[in-house]
């Protein structure tokens, strides 16, 4: 059982490193970073308590929001999805990503307290 | 509508108006009159005060002391060239006996010259008054002309009142009709307050002087003044409602009005009041009424009778057209001879004998009081299942039952009695018939009401088991009191009838009876402020801060490994501007966290963001072009 899981994972990683372009890998690294940050915040909250609850929420939602926006960026700049996003160039996607992040972080900064 | 219908309507409308005639609510009692006289008797220092004091006092029927001294004062203070001085001196000299003011031709000329259209109304009034009191001749028709002209020029209330006063000093042959009409005009200017008061907005003095002047002129020409009965009573209320007067002039005006209203040819308001409380009883069988004028002078020529009297409770008539007898200035009626039952009676009293009397029908509420006695007071202890016969003890007022009664939860304590009018022997149902049980040890008391049955026999039953909550289940000896009271009883009763020992089941631990602790300071409330939440130790939070920031390191490593670089960084102005702007926005976020509020941040963000957007747009466009070229 574990054998097959391991083999699936190693196959997946191999295929990933070969087929994905560098640009996408950069974004994936960013996604991983955001994920880890959010998970660590959640861990702190579980262990120590929710004392400045608004701060926890703002931090966590910042991670979640950034993750979602980055995923959107990744989808939009992936050349394999070009057919779905004919009117949106990668530059446009990046600009949208920056704008949305600005709004998100404005709200996060407001809430962080 | 034909004439008979109209007449019927008129009669119908008049009937209720007659039933609700106004009666005076204010007048000068004897103490008020003496207070007024005291005010007017104060020593005077000038001619005007002398005039007010002496003439005012004489109008009230008071005695002016030391006429000679007054006369000397008048002569010494007189200024023969002043119309005012002559007026005050002349009028005052008329009020005291044996005083003659010397008159010269110059004096007469000055006075006559003052009577003209060009003098003020006050001047004309004083000149005519002086001429009249000094016995000098004057041309009445000329005066009337001057008055008429002045009324047109000085249209205020005081001036017209002075005109009325002046006209009353003129010859009866003169044509005073024009001046007489002014009374009606002035009446229309009076303010009606609540249907009770009628007065000028200029105040008490004007109203009082108006009454005096109107009646003086009406008497002089023998024409009834156009004042309705209700209006006269309202004027009486206004003038005599003030019982302390600010100035001599005000006191003088009230005295003049009082004199005018008690002695004129047309309207004399009558005051009917009971001497003492309007109560009759067997000890005091006569109802005594004082019938006076507004100055509390008795109207002995009048005759008083009761038009009708009926009991308020039953509305049955008891008297009709019964006269009062005059006894030493007081009108008396022996009401008890009609043997009224105790209670309240509504009397309608009519005063007749003089056609001038105003408000001669008065409604009076008379109380008939009596004495009560308790009879047939029977006390007994009855078993609930009524298997054992009752033993009744009779107690006579005011003694107490010799042995105490005992009642526990199986028994009822019962009491029955009758309340009887001592004088007539009839049964009474007073307002208050209470049974009070007072615990001698703890001070507790419980009060019950005894109710009469259909035969007016009072019964009271105490069920110990049922009522234990009112007694707090406190067993012990209770003193039983009977309380009887009513407004028409002269001898209210508080009678300790017996002692009752009550035994309750389930007696709680006898707690000392707490008097109601409503007004004792309450226990203090300690306010607990919100405790600040517990913070985790600094070590823990610092560790986690480092931990949370560590993925950033991982990100940089990964990016390095992937070969992400900034080699294609073009140093065009838009690129630089974009990056600077972006960095500025991030800096703004930090500053927002530490210093600013949302509005300021949005302001800066708009500026920086705008610049960044434009630069970024340019930069990305260039990038796109480059990408297209590469393809």
UniProtKB/TrEMBL annotation, chain A:
Keyword Protein transport part of the UniProt annotation: no
InterPro entries: DAD/Ost2
Gene Ontology biological process: protein N-linked glycosylation
KW Zinc (keyword) present: no
Pathways per UniProt: Protein modification; protein glycosylation
Assembly: Component of the oligosaccharyltransferase (OST) complex.
Alphabetized PANTHER family for the sequence: DOLICHYL-DIPHOSPHOOLIGOSACCHARIDE--PROTEIN GLYCOSYLTRANSFERASE SUBUNIT DAD1 (PTHR10705)
Name of the protein in its database record: Dolichyl-diphosphooligosaccharide--protein glycosyltransferase subunit DAD1
The organism's taxonomic lineage, starting at the top: Eukaryota, Metazoa, Chordata, Craniata, Vertebrata
Gene name linked to the record: DAD1
């Amino acid at each position: 059982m574990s054998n097959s899981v391991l083999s699936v994972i190693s196959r997946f990683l191999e295929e990933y490193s070969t087929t994905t372009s560098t640009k996408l890998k950069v974004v994936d690294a960013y996604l991983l970073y955001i994920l880890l940050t959010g998970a660590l915040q959640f861990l702190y909250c579980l262990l120590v308590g929710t004392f400045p609850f608004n701060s926890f929420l703002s931090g966590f939602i910042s991670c979640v929001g950034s993750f979602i926006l980055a995923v959107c960026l990744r989808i939009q700049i992936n050349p394999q999805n070009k057919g779905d996003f004919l009117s949106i160039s990668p530059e446009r996607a990046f600009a949208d990503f920056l704008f949305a992040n600005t709004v998100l972080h404005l709200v996060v900064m407001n809430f962080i307290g | 509508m034909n004439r008979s219908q109209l007449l019927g309507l008129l009669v119908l409308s008049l009937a209720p108006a007659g039933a609700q005639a106004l009666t005076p609510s204010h007048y000068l009692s004897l103490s008020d009159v003496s207070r007024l006289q005291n005010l007017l008797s104060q020593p005077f220092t000038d001619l005007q005060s002398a005039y007010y004091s002496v003439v005012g006092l004489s109008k009230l029927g008071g005695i002016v002391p030391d006429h000679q001294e007054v006369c000397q004062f008048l002569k010494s203070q007189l200024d023969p060239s002043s119309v005012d001085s002559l007026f005050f001196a002349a009028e005052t000299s008329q009020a005291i006996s044996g005083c003659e003011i010397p008159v010269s031709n110059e004096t007469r000329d000055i006075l006559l010259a003052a009577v003209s259209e060009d003098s003020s109304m006050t001047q004309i009034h004083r000149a005519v008054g002086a001429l009249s009191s000094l016995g000098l001749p004057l041309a009445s028709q000329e005066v009337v002309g001057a008055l008429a002209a002045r009324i047109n020029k000085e249209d205020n209330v005081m001036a017209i009142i002075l005109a009325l006063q002046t006209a009353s000093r003129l010859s009866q042959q003169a044509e005073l009709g024009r001046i007489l009409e002014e009374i009606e005009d002035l009446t229309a200017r009076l303010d009606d307050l609540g249907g009770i008061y009628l007065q000028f907005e200029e105040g008490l003095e004007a109203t009082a002087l108006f009454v005096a002047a109107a009646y003086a002129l009406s008497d002089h020409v023998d024409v009834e003044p156009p004042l309705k009965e209700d209006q006269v009573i309202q004027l009486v209320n206004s003038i005599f409602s003030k019982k302390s007067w600010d100035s001599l002039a005000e006191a003088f005006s009230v005295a003049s009005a009082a004199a005018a209203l008690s002695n004129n040819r047309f309207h004399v308001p009558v005051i009917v009041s009971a001497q003492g409380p309007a109560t009759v009883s067997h000890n005091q069988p006569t109802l005594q009424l004082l019938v006076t004028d507004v100055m509390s002078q008795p109207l002995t020529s009048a005759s008083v009778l009761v038009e009708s009297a009926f009991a308020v409770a039953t509305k049955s008539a008891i008297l009709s057209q019964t006269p009062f007898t005059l006894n030493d200035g007081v009108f008396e009626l022996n009401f008890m001879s009609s043997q009224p039952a105790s209670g309240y009676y509504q009397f309608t009293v009519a005063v007749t004998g003089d056609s001038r009397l105003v408000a001669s029908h008065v409604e009076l509420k008379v109380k008939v009081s009596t004495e009560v006695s308790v009879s047939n007071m029977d006390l007994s202890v009855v078993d609930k299942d009524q298997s054992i016969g009752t033993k009744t003890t009779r107690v006579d007022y005011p003694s107490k039952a010799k042995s105490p009664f005992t009642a526990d939860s199986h028994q009822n304590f019962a009491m029955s009695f009758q309340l009887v009018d001592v004088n007539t022997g009839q049964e009474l149902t007073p307002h208050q018939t209470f049974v009070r049980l007072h615990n001698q040890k703890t001070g507790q008391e419980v009060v019950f009401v005894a109710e009469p049955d259909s035969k007016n026999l009072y019964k009271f039953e105490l069920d110990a088991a049922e009522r234990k909550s009112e007694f707090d289940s406190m067993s012990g000896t209770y003193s039983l009191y009977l309380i009887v009271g009513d407004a028409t009883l002269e001898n209210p009763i508080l009678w300790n009838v017996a002692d009752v020992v009550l035994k309750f089941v389930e007696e709680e631990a006898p707690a000392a009876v707490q008097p109601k602790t409503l007004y004792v300071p309450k226990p203090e409330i300690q306010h607990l402020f919100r405790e600040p939440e517990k913070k985790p130790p600094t070590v823990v939070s610092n560790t986690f801060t480092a931990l949370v920031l560590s993925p950033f390191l991982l990100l940089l490593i990964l990016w390095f490994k992937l070969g992400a670089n900034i080699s294609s960084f073009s140093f065009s102005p838009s690129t630089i501007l974009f990056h600077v702007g972006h960095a500025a926005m991030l800096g703004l976020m930090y500053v927002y966290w530490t210093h600013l509020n949302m509005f300021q941040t949005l302001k800066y963000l708009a500026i920086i963001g705008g610049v960044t957007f434009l630069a970024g747009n340019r930069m990305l466009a260039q990038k796109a072009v480059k990408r297209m070229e590469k393809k």
